[in-house]
Amino acid sequence: MADPAVLKQLRETLQGLETKGFRRRPVLPMGIHAIDTRLANGGFRLDALHEIAAGTADLADDCAATLFMAGIAARAWGPVLWVVRRHDLFAPGVSQSGLSAGRLIYAEAADDAEMLAIMEEGLRHRGLGAVIGEAKRADMTATRRLQLAAEGGRTIALLMMRHIRETSDPLRLPSAAITRWRVTSAPSTPLPGTVPGVGRARWMLDLVRQKGGEPFSQLVEACDETGRCALPAALVDRSVAPGRANLRAA
Question: Which homologous superfamily is 26-237 in?
Fold first, then answer.
């Protein structure tokens, strides 16, 4: 059970938020035609729970999944509550994905149960743009509570499911999440010409489940300073074969 003192302090913090003037939308598009046209709602539903997991237990994939969440939250409409279980969130990296420190409210949870309770409290407040949490286990009951707390509002819920073991699947349990994603690091964008070095990071996004739609995979360039991903140039420039989806970014 969550510590009542922790929830009381969180409520007092949330009550002091100024939320006037923020633009509230029902859906947050990715801004990439090849993805938005395959998402059942044309983007991320803001009144819903979305699960994200690293493709493997490797630190590079863990970072990619974290920055993917940060980019989504960066394009939401207001303050962001991020509930952590350990002190490994690198603020400068999150900021490079568009989520500035001035918008973040951090909460530290002792265990998964407390983390889920804090997330639920933040979602019910209705004064936040996004609520993010990190868990090793979240069963159908827990995710259903988060989904119900998000419904009717405009606060997107992002739950990162962490690897328990190298061979474990963080998305193995049933969930009430509207979408469930795996994010895996891919070879970075090559720099032009013969210039040595590493270009913009790339990720393979695998949507393994979505309510009302089909799973799919898409290679993207990592979030920029505005929180937006992009299609690699080779995909943008490729002509569309008959029967293929349009790969150009919107």
Answer: P-loop containing nucleotide triphosphate hydrolases (3.40.50.300)
